[in-house]
Amino acid sequence: MNGKFHIVAADSGATGDSIAGASPRGAIFGNNSNEAGLVTFIMSDEPGSWFRSARGDLLSPVTHTKSLEIVPPGSSVHFIMADTHGVHTVTSLLWPTEAGHNAHGGDHFMIPFDQTKAYRGGGIVQLNVPGLYVFTCKIHPYMFGAVIVDNSATDGLDLGNTIDLVSGIKELPTSSDLATRLLRTFFVATTPSNWQDFTSSAPWHVNYPAVDVVTDLGKLPLVPVLESRYGQNIDLPPLFKPGTPGVGEVWINTQFEKTAGKTKPGTITVLDTSDWTLKRKIALPQINMNNPHNLWPNRDHSMIYQTQWFDTKLTLIDQKTGKMIKNIQVGDTPSHVVTLPTTDDATVAINGENGVVIIPAGTTEIKHMMPTQHHGQAPANPHGHWVSADGKRIITPNINTSDTGIYDAETGEIISRTDTGKGAPGPHPIAIGMMPDSSKVFAANLLHHSISVLDGNNGALLDTIDLIKNYNPITGDITGPVGVLPIQTPVSPDGKVMVTAATGGQIVVIDPVTHKIVKMLPCDAGCHGANFGAKQGGGYYAYVTSKFSNRLLVVDPDPNGDGDLIDADIVGAISMVADVSVAKDDAVSSLPGYGGQGLVALPNVYNGWVQNLSSEWAAGLTDSQRNPVH
Hints:
The protein has six helices and 43 strands. By secondary structure, it is mainly β.
């Protein structure tokens, strides 16, 4: 179907009117009218449908997603946080350039719609300028809702001539590779049937709406453009095991996997690296565990701390049995948890609030919250933090204030807060890596496609690693390694390599000493999590997860042991889908193995932590792995 189209619910005689509060004769998608209307997005914990149109079931047979609306100029969009346990923001990710200019009457950069902090509630925005608008949640930046404001006089759906991005890019042509790449990302992220299934022999096929769109080059057929640029019916590579075992286990948050005894998504998948088989699935149906996002062990590895990112809880789990020990209320939308290597106290980033909570070792009560900003300042909303090897510094990427903070772990004093986007309005620092001697901090800036390098003591900006310098956003030409939308970026325990998971579908191998990008490896849709674990006999594996696929990648940064990172390679691809032999506390019901995000390897071999391992957990390590910094 090309051009404009009209939808009606089958055999109902009804129009496509918005269910929640729409003008009954509004010219919203599916109605033959010239009046402005109102459409509603319900913000949800549901995988794919995080911004779900109230008319999603009616629209999705044509749009393939429940997160896209089409309205005429002057219509309004109503956001309701009605089906979520977390806090969120509604933030413009991209918009027609003219809309930004019209809002303030000038040529300076501005964000048309942005909440000052995360909360439970909603909002309404009126959209007057034709073109494409995409909204996201700054706390959960893969939540997307898109609106096309369509001028009925044009022959096709209006994307506008140019768009501005929250990252600071202005006047990007809508026919450009970056614009269409982001559009493709939207259709993959919001449509579970478009996710990569590595247990199927069928090629990967992404469904797009069969419509014409109006860009700076005029009318273009959407499907042929996207398929010609990014392929279609792509054969997925086979699963395979590394030739050399790892040491211990890897605990992976398969955050979107659904089970029969829960209404909320998310499981923990435990991988035995001695033979690369799945050992356990943990769903915790008795607490309706909600979107488990990141995890970390206590010192003796008897217990795993697990955050519930779309909720308010930190869950303590018995490592040997997978059973819950306790479920603790810690604050709105906890994201990451890391222990202090010196005391074994747990530190939890409260992503929807203003600080990091401290839970003393051996207790299940919060001692205090360490603020990540001074009184009266905008809430920082810290995400994927890290801790120095000596336990003296806590470092947070502050997504709401576009900076990286360094704090005294004992006193809570703010040592520094450093802008990590070189003045860009929305770099979105999201995850921290750190040299094993704590001399340098690496902050991944999701929307700025960069990594900021900071002094580990005073926070001074030392360098910025541009991950898209080899990418032409207009033509799509790639002349060297790139990393689009970087997220987790750990440094190996010996400080020889940094591995960055880029959600654009790349694993970037970086020399953390020189800050040079050495190599790019292919990753899956929504590449997200990365962490290091010990390789049997010496060296390290980097384990990498992806949100929109159901496999784990194993990267060996130095397969032949010659110290040259150019040899880095993917040496294993392991299914996250459990068969009947895998122990489970609830039956998997849908989205099997999907949603790979945070992960941690046991034993914890990072400097500062590895020295405190018990003899049981240290037994499989080499002398160099026990003492990674000589």
